Amino acid sequence: MLTFTLRRISLFIFTMLVLTLLSFSLSFLFPGDTVINHSGQTNATAAELVELKASYQMDKNIVKQYGAYLGHILNGDFGQSMASQSPINNEIIELLPATIELSLVALLIAMLVGIPLGFIAAINHNKASDNAILSFAMIGYSIPVFWLGLLAILVFSITLGWLPSAGQISLLFEIEFVTGIQFIDILLSDSPYKWQAFSNASAHIILPACVIALAPATIFIRLSRAAMIEVLAASYIRAARAKGLTFQQIIFRHAIRNALIKIIRHVGLQFANLVTIAMVTEVIFSWPGIGRWLIESIFQRDYTAIQSGLLVLSCFIFIIHILTDFIYAALNPLARGNKHGA
Amino acid sequence: MAREKIYLEEVFPSPFMQLWGIFRKTPVAMVGFCCFIFLILLAIFAPIIAPYSPVDGNLQMILLPPAWHVDGNVSYLLGTDELGRDMLSRLMYGTSLTFGLSFIVVIFSLVIGVVIGSLSALTHGIKSSFLNHFLDVVLSIPSLLLAIIIVAILGPGISNTVWAIAIVFIPQFIHITRYAVKEEFRKDYVLASRLDGASNFRILYYSVFPNIVERLMSQATLAQSAAILDIATLGFLGLGAQIPLPEWGAILANGLERFYIAPWTVYLPGLAILFAVVATNLVGEGIRHALKLRKES
């Protein structure tokens, strides 16, 4: 486990270096002055500019410049937003939790729907229900997410009027900002309307989360189907059957556990995909998250915001990636590397 | 009576022809393949067969519903938008933008990715390990996110979108080529031709490529379905194709304001995207299915 951890940590450091290098070089690639792109201070006076140049070591060579930039990032200083002139780390702290909340709920829905469906398809391999689930997966995988979001709004918000179409919670509720994750904040608050607020927030999250969940769910269907088919063909299943276990016992005690382990490995990779879908969905559902903020910054040519948003988002994706790797290794001793006797 | 065949010649079809033989027998895959060919033909011949211009509107015919609707007009089969532009013609021209461009983009990235990938498969040591790590990082960033960043650098517009998506798809082709070439190089037939004195490039060209071409095609279909969705999404967000261009995502975004009174301006381009992506995915599924069957036989 130790070598495994060390390997992951070295990969993490390497990735972070590449990502910061990328966002550092973005300042040179974007139009405009590099130091202004780094700091976002568009209205700086001449004296302030000199100070900024000194703090980013702009007169030294490129390696030192990168070091100075890295120092700023490590101190939590992402500069100012060019559009609003407020510090970017404050904006990110406010917006990132909303995205985390939305994407985790969507991931949960995707797994809860996708994995059982995949298992059902695998158990009925090459039968009608298998084909039906596979065709559903194909369509779900191919549907453009923005179109699906619009159709969902048209059907469930406008025509049927069941669910709200925009925002995180109704503006009537005043929830104090503590963690930024709406559900936790509501539970922490001492408002008398706590449960109304909670149900309102849940009603707001259902539609965007389901829209985001569809594409990853279809991928989970395919993954879990493939994993289950592979497990059911394994010899230990045949041994269990020979022992005279019933079909339910084989599936629930032996097959599902072994198939689940194979799926967990892919959750990290799917999460990256899910976050991108979430970015587009946030725009459609006016969700106050970092994806919408990032896309708005592109329209406003807010280069400092773009580069820090990219850094934070990919950092978040990568941390989840590593976390799932650890969960996988904790659950599956075979993945920890040193194979004894192999 | 003349006998045409004097002796029975045993013919071994090439790996590619074996694959085609299996592929042809899967009806669903063939339907997808026909749709795919149809879309390519449409993309090429759209300017000839489209009934109207995609950008000039007819102001007498604003927001006409599709022809099957009570108020529809049969000369505008799929209705018109808020400027009286014929939806059918716009969707046809859109095929060459969304579908045609994605096809070209994927071919372009495929060629560059294969060249870099096969060169890097022949390298060893620290260079190779660095490339491996670097590719892992790039591949862990979703293609759309990376495309959005590149568009942010280059500025919005259809040509910048195309460049962004081409750049984004190169790493995955490098990765798959590298992996496939390394795997093939360990096999005995490569050793055999090496013992014959063939150089690395000769082995690559005559021995390895014919054996990995299907895997590359399968990856290309995956990349293309992602490319169609990415081009459309960027168009929808306003970062891709700009206003008068009939790109499917942009048409959809354009209809958004009149979503409730003219829903066909939103659901038709969406259906077009769905159709193109499903057709591409069916072809990809067919290739993967055939690959699996060929491996088993």
Automatic annotation (TrEMBL), chain A:
For membrane topology, the record states:
Multi-pass membrane protein
Q: Where in the cell is it found?
A: Cell inner membrane; Cell membrane
Q: Which CDD domains match?
A: TM_PBP2
User: Keyword Membrane: yes or no?
Assistant: yes
**TM spans (from-to):** 9-30, 104-124, 136-163, 201-221, 271-290, 310-331
Domain (ABC transmembrane type-1): residue spans on this chain: 96-324
InterPro entries documented for this protein:
BPD_transp_1_N, MetI-like, MetI-like_sf
Provide a Gene Ontology MF annotation, just one: dipeptide transmembrane transporter activity
Gene Ontology CC entries for this record: plasma membrane
Q: Which UniProt keywords apply?
A: Cell inner membrane, Cell membrane, Membrane, Transmembrane, Transmembrane helix, Transport
State whether keyword Transport applies: yes
- Per the record, the domain of life is Bacteria
Tell me the PANTHER family matching this sequence: DIPEPTIDE TRANSPORT SYSTEM PERMEASE PROTEIN DPPB-RELATED, PUTRESCINE EXPORT SYSTEM PERMEASE PROTEIN SAPB
Record family assignment: Belongs to the binding-protein-dependent transport system permease family. OppBC subfamily.
- What is the recorded name of this protein? ABC-type transporter, integral membrane subunit
UniProtKB/TrEMBL annotation, chain B:
Gene3D superfamilies per UniProt: MetI-like
Q: Name one GO biological process term.
A: transmembrane transport
Which PROSITE patterns does UniProt cross-reference here? Answer: ABC_TM1
Q: Which residues cross the membrane?
A: 28-50, 97-122, 134-155, 161-181, 225-244, 264-284
For this protein, the record's Pfam families field holds: BPD_transp_1, OppC_N
Which residue intervals define the domain ABC transmembrane type-1 in the entry? 95-284
Subcellular location, record wording: Cell inner membrane; Cell membrane
Chief location of this protein? membrane
CDD domains noted in UniProt: TM_PBP2
Listed A to Z, the keywords are: Cell inner membrane, Cell membrane, Membrane, Transmembrane, Transmembrane helix, Transport
Q: Does the keyword Transport apply?
A: yes
Which family does the UniProt entry place this protein in? Belongs to the binding-protein-dependent transport system permease family. OppBC subfamily.
Query: In its UniProt entry, what is this protein called?
Result: ABC-type transporter, integral membrane subunit
